[in-house]
Amino acid sequence: SLSIGIVGLPNVGKSTLFNALTKNDALAANYPFATIEPNVGVVGVPDSRLERLSKIYDSQKIIPATMEFVDIAGIVKGASEGQGLGNKFLANIRETNAICQVIRAFEDADVTHVDGDVAPSRDIETINTELILADLQTIEKALPRLEKEARTKKDKEQLAVVEAVQTAQKLLNEGNTLFASADKVDLDLLRELHLLTAKPFLYVFNLDEEELGDEAIRARLRDLVAPAEAIFLDAKIEAELIELPDDEALELLQGLGQEESGLSQLVRIGFDTLGLQTYLTAGPKESRAWTIKKGATAPEAAGVIHTDFQRGFIKAEIVSFDDLIAEGSLPNARTAGKVRMEGKDYIMRDGDVVEFRFNV
Ligand code: GDP
Question: Is residue 348 part of a domain?
């Protein structure tokens, strides 16, 4: 599955957050592979639709979509030059599909800040600078080879890649991340370089409890990172929430003026940042969410269940979740004309409830 790397300076609350994510009963997926590394956590994507679906179908089990979080230690000033865990850090982060920066906004005299005081905008700058420097190194290494290849092959596509890499180099030299420069350079052409700042970013601000509900503070922090998504939470509260029964957790959240836990927001928004969506299947055995890329076709969606389903795809019987709920059952939805037969060109929509027909 696709993964999100959690990065941030030391002492910002990364481990607290990561541990809460992976210990959370509501999110922690029952992962069949035991050998997963200690810094990798597989979590279920919260989806209240599954519960309702399982009632209609009297399903024995609910299986949510999953995604991975990787706790990436070791970013400090100078990481791109090998400071701290520099190179290991860069290798780990290169393998992830999106980057979640945890930024400290909480004050606590007992928790030292590596750079002396709490300053979110400076910390964002520090991390982005390291990622930008790492990308510039990657480009400096790769560019001579790419230029030579393009010259000898006189290949149009190769030339376009070289041009894009040169543009990227210029943007990075001016202090821009590539993710925020998608209007100035075609990120697809840079793909083979696995550049760090070309990955989608999202931000978690770790706030004091009292500041969580302060819209002025949230707006100021949100402005620092727009157009990337910002999530506001208190990692210490998140660690407490997972220890509480559901009703008490909800009470605590509501007392803080929150509707959804920070962890749940992080997983939900992270999933979206990865460019993913879900479709649903349901029956007496299980109600289940499956992960597909936004824009996937019906046969591609079938292929997520089994490659044979994709190869032998005939058609998909589809009802939207909302229509199914409104009608109360699949037979009712059929009678009401809400169930559609879709062919191989159909583009899946989020929340489609599906049954595939295929040849074996
Ligand atoms: P990491 O180095 O980024 O992984 O940070 P940790 O998760 O290990 O947290 C460092 C210290 O800060 C620990 O003592 C945490 O208990 C504390 N901490 C983490 N989040 C918060 C928070 O939201 N508020 C306060 N006051 N302390 C926190």
Answer: yes
